[in-house]
Amino acid sequence: MSTPPIGRRGFIKGALGVGALAVAGCAPGGSGQAVPSKLAAPSATASTVKGEITIWNRSGDLFKVFDAAIAKFKQAYPGVTVNHQQVDIDAKLANTLISGTDVPDGSFWDDAKIGGQAEHLYDLTDLIAPYQDKTAPYKISVNTVDGKIYGVPWDLDPGLLWYREDILEAAGVDIASIATYDDLLTASRTIKDKNPASKPIHLDKNPFLSQLWLEMLANQQGTSLTDASGKLRLDSPEYKKIFTWIKQATGDGLVTHAPYLEPADVNTLDNGQQVFVPWAIWWSFAPQNLLKATKGKWRAAPLPAWTPGGARSGVMGGSSFVIPAKAKNPELAWLLYEYLCFKDEGIQAVYGPNSVYPGGLSTSVPSYLPALDPAKPLFQPIEALGGQDLWKVATEAASTIPAAAPIPWWWAQSVDYLGNNVQRLIEGTMSPDDVIADSAKKIQRNLIDRG
């Protein structure tokens, strides 16, 4: 999910006679319901396959991008009709899956939310198998629940450090000198000394997004909220390091606490108050579509590392495609997602030039590794970034991302505890130790133990 720009911040009937192989077992979270069937691939060829599918996607920029790519899919599969609908997925998809009424054949969804509904989705393990070794390990892991893959991995969202090149130059700060998060604080103090009104570092005011951001910083350090067995590991040196850094940044007056790309955020980005945005690649939407006064002045660099020589990126968010267990034509939905995620023609159709991004979709990179060739860009240098080659920066950052454990089914629900407490930390009403102790206790008691 990605959970990027405007299009993802709302915050995708035919008869093939293809059967599915039923798999017995218990649903994730211990609900006792049967795990859905394992989906099998259609046996028909591209020229003979026929039918109609309904695909859900969020409204906004990505809907337009995928709509154009689906038109290319229909040329490759002329017998397939795709009913592509704009839907408030966050509000509607989970309830639709649970009720089993009017479910789509496939849908776009945030990686962080897939595990919580795995019992209502097709097991795609066998279909993903031919592509698994060529897909970013992170994306395989976050789509896996109890050893089964429930999402078709789409994007990879490497974290980058977005910065105002003009302000750094005026303050005498070399972006190459910012190698660690301590260096970022030092650079921010230098900038604030030059301009006392500056609060250089963006920290987000949305609990869900701030928790996604937190997981990016944890991923950089090779950890995550739970380990591979589902054991909570919030009480760890890695998370303590992040929370301590937040406390220091806020205590030194170096933070602008604003909601992602809402007017207060945009205004302070444009007026020079905000200088650094450590965020996912999908922040590139801002200079291309929202920022006016500073368009062309922003650049991207690798994230700072937590220790000298450490990883310079981590994943923030991400999205995949799911196929509901009660879909009418799941095999056709698989053909669409296979085309968009694993076929060169489909990847080019998604990331190539379109009406929203004339130089190509630049708010993520594919999770399919053969497509991540720095010498073969899928999108062009971006004028709104002063002509910077973001493809090169992003693919190099993506190559440093550590592997991850599967996202627990309760992750989105944990925002009520951890995401909210991160906000309290930024506001100065909780300490790092308080955030860890309170969040861990409530997640364990209210989510893990009740699972």
Question: Please, could you describe this protein's structure?
Answer:
The chain is an alpha/beta fold. 37% of the residues lie in helices and 13% in strands. It has 16 helices and 14 strands. The protein has helices at 61-76, 89-99, 111-114, 125-132, 137-142, 165-171, 181-194, 207-220, 237-251, 263-270, 285-289, 330-342, 344-351, 390-398, 418-427, 432-448; strands at 51-57, 80-86, 106-110, 144-145, 148-149, 152-153, 155-156, 159-164, 201-204, 255-258, 276-280, 298-302, 319-322, 365-366. Helix 9 (237-251) packs across helix 16, helix 12 (330-342) crosses helix 13 and helix 15 runs antiparallel to helix 16. The protein starts with 50 loop residues before the first strand and ends with a helix.
Question: Can you describe this structure in just a few lines?
Answer:
This protein is of the alpha/beta class. It is built from 16 helices and 14 strands.
What topology does this entry show?
Blueprint: E1 51-57, H1 61-76, E2 80-86, H2 89-99, E3 106-110, H3 111-114, H4 125-132, H5 137-142, E4 144-145, E5 148-149, E6 152-153, E7 155-156, E8 159-164, H6 165-171, H7 181-194, E9 201-204, H8 207-220, H9 237-251, E10 255-258, H10 263-270, E11 276-280, H11 285-289, E12 298-302, E13 319-322, H12 330-342, H13 344-351, E14 365-366, H14 390-398, H15 418-427, H16 432-448
Helix pairs in contact: 1-13, 8-15, 9-15, 9-16, 12-13, 15-16
